[in-house]
Amino acid sequence: MRLFSLILNYCTLSFIGFLLLLSSCKENDNPPVSDFKPTPYEIEIPYAFPTKLNIPADNPMTVEGVALGRYLFYDGRLSGRTHPDSLMSCSSCHIQQNNFEPGIDNPHFVGGFVHGLNGQQTHHVVLPLINLVWNSSGYGWNGSFFPDNENPNFRNIEDIVRASVLAPDEMYGDTNRVKALFQSLDGYPELFFKAFGSQTITFKNIEKAIAQFVRSFVSADAKIDRYLKGEVQLSQSELNGFILFTTEEGADCFHCHGGFGNPLFTTHLFYNNGKDTIFDDPLDRFAITNDPMHKGAYKAPTLRNISLSGPYMHDGRFSTLDEVINFYSHHVKLSEQVDPLMHHVLRGGVQLTPSEKADLKAFIATLHDENFLTNPAYSKPEKFPDED
Amino acid sequence: MHKITWAGIISILLIISACQKTDEPATFGQIAFEVHHEVDGENLNTDALIYTNGAGNRYMVTEIHWFISNLTLIGADGSHTEMMESSEENIFYIDTDIEESWHIKANKPIPAGRYSGLRFTFGLDKTLNKSHRFVNPPESFMFWPTYLGGGYHYMKLNGKWINTLGKNEPFNFHLGIGQEYYEAGKTNEDFYVFGRSDNYEHCEGYLPPENLSPVIAFIHNNFTIELPLDFEVKSGQTTQLDLVMQVEKWFNSRELYDHDQWGGAIMQQQAAMEMGCRNGVEAFHLRRSN
Fold it and tell me: Which residues of chain A are within 8 Å of residue B212 when distances are taken between CB atoms?
């Protein structure tokens, strides 16, 4: 009996040893380290854009990383599931032709309000993924992901990827299951090696690849960009709108939404723009800073491709740009927290006339960048690695 | 014997080393400024409706963002020493929300000796105030629209005051290039279309609209002031001074600035900006750091 037990133990140990050997062999399936030669991915700085980029030191952009991120961004198995009803990826809500937003006429998300795999609606509406490599002030409507956050899990786009996979109102996934699934898919381990030097897929590298791909999204080819470079002239109505946009006695959009000196068309900062007088959203800017003056404050999103970005405001209360312009023109509300930049508040807004509203809208249309919306580099791959 | 010999050699080397220091004494030191924002002699308390200006407006300040440039030390003998290696570097952005911006330090050795004050430009002068000089935030967020003259805000001082209706009204005390607008009665010679003024140089790459704007001229509102203070820069040491903005003086030093008169926005009100700048000349002082 004792001998049998000894033999059993020996066999067990041998089996474990065999498994370890197999595991070790699998690690050794990696091509030689000398084959890992990623190509740096250079972001060309558009005219007048910032030169400082928000790229974490531990995730430099590479051609291979961006290419891998493109597959992952679009692969519905990012949810960790394979059943057709359970597929979800970044691209489920961030649709290129809709400025990487769901779009107000999205057939799955009524009115552009998105929900996760379990049907739960997200707390705020989706923000566009556009020129994010130039945002160092915080991602999200309240800026909860920012580079010097004491919580290392809430700092950058990489962390948003993880949060989106885990969130009940998004993919409601499990990071271990996700990485195991991609490990089992032909072609992916090789792409991970090319991007990160190891065929063993980690969720950290999944985060990094998607973040690299998202950082590659650059919109800088709208009519306004060509105008600022002196290549085209704006129409009379567009010029009138530009002047309204950039003057205090006009619509005064520029302090928060940029202009000639800030072609991002956002400061990426947070303002209480006078939408409400009672502030009970647990996820406003106050939730991050704990400063009572930040109650009801949210990010000023970029106005690039804004005509595709509805529904508007953090809670999607406005469906059209006309409603937004009418709000800023006549319905701004006074509160203790309203930002000082809303200096027209006691008049209810900037009081634009119908023709001024039309001019302002005409100018905003010059921020439409069709090349960004159709750039094949940002589009869904024709097929995924395991479909080769 | 060996010990004595080595001790002797080391002693001689030390003496030589000491002699060398004596022969070539350090003649340069350093200077640094810490910027303070104060109201009525106390540190600025932002977002607190506790101040009253000379015109009787109760007010609060939310934030102050501003540029200071061309910092030059005035020697006791009347000589001038630029703080920075180049004028391009001699521009500083200061922000009440960004503590690092409160520290200004020369980037070159400052000759040791006695000094009698500091001269600087509030904002940016005509030469420095070019659009797209700064492409990175937060400086880029200070851009001044081309239609209004281009370049950058000299200062954004944002807050609220209690207006005559007892309402908490926002104000944007923003200073930068002012505009002169076309008025009936002026001669054709007075009128020239926006973008054709001497400020056109600000707008490189920008095609100004023709026959559109009533702006006939731009006015550079920046000003240069000298703050007197006797101080010494000692060899090998850093002299630390405080540069203080007395916020209340923007509204009540030479003239009374009344928010009820000028309202919440003045970028297109040259008279208000002019008054602000006339007051601003008195809004700074220099003192030794504690």
Answer: 236, 239-240, 243
Residue A112 backbone class (left: φ over 0; alpha: ψ -120 to 50; beta: rest) = left
Mean pLDDT of chain B: 86
Number of domains observed in the structure of chain B: 1
What number of other Cβ atoms are within 10 A of residue A305's Cβ?
Answer: 23
**Residue B262 pLDDT:** 97
Tell me if domain A63-219 and domain A223-368 are identical in fold.
yes
Chosen for mutation from A260, A265, A334, A347 (greatest number of chain B CBs closer than 10 Å) is: A260
Q: Using an 8 Å Cβ cutoff, are B284 and B33 in contact?
A: no
Q: Which residues pair with A329 in a beta bridge?
A: none
> Could you tell me the residue range of the domain that residue B14 belongs to?
2-288
Extents of the domains making up chain A: 63-219, 223-368
Q: Is the pLDDT of residue A39 over 80?
A: yes
Tell me how far apart the alpha carbons of residues A222 and A367 are, in angstroms, rounded to a whole number: 5
pLDDT in tens, B115-124: 999 999 999 9
Give the rounded percent of residues in chain A with a pLDDT score beyond 90.
90
Listed residue (A120, A128, A106, A97) closest to A312, CA to CA: A128
Is the backbone peptide bond immediately before A311 cis, with ω within 30 degrees of 0?
Answer: yes
Helix (H, G, I), strand (E, B) or coil at B60: strand
Task: Give the pLDDT confidence of B53-62 residue by residue, as tens digits.
Answer: 999 999 999 9
> What was the pLDDT predicted at A375?
98
Q: pLDDT tens-digit profile of B11-52?
A: 555 554 544 444 455 599 999 999 999 999 999 999 999 999
Query: Is residue A42 a contact partner of residue A175, using CB atoms and an 8 Å limit?
Result: no
A34 falls in which pLDDT band (50, 70, 90)?
confident
> Per-residue pLDDT tens for A103-116?
999 999 999 999 99
192-231 in chain A: CB under 8 A from chain B = 227-230
Check: CB of residue A271 under 8 Å from CB of residue A300.
Answer: yes
In chain B, which ranges are continuous DSSP H helix? 2-23, 259-262, 270-280
Question: In Å, how far is B56's CA from the nearest CA of chain A?
Answer: 20
Cis amide bond preceding B109, omega within 30: no
Question: What is the dihedral angle through the alpha carbons of B36, B41, B46, B52, rounded to the nearest 10 degrees?
Answer: -140
| pLDDT (average), residues A177-191 | 98
Q: Indicate the CATH number of A223-368 among 1.10.760.10, 1.10.1610.10, 3.40.50.410, 3.40.120.10.
A: 1.10.760.10
Q: Search chain B and give the residue with CA nearest A252.
A: B265
**Superfamily of the domain at A63-219:** Cytochrome c-like domain (1.10.760.10)
pLDDT band at A33 (very low <50, low <70, confident <90, very high): confident
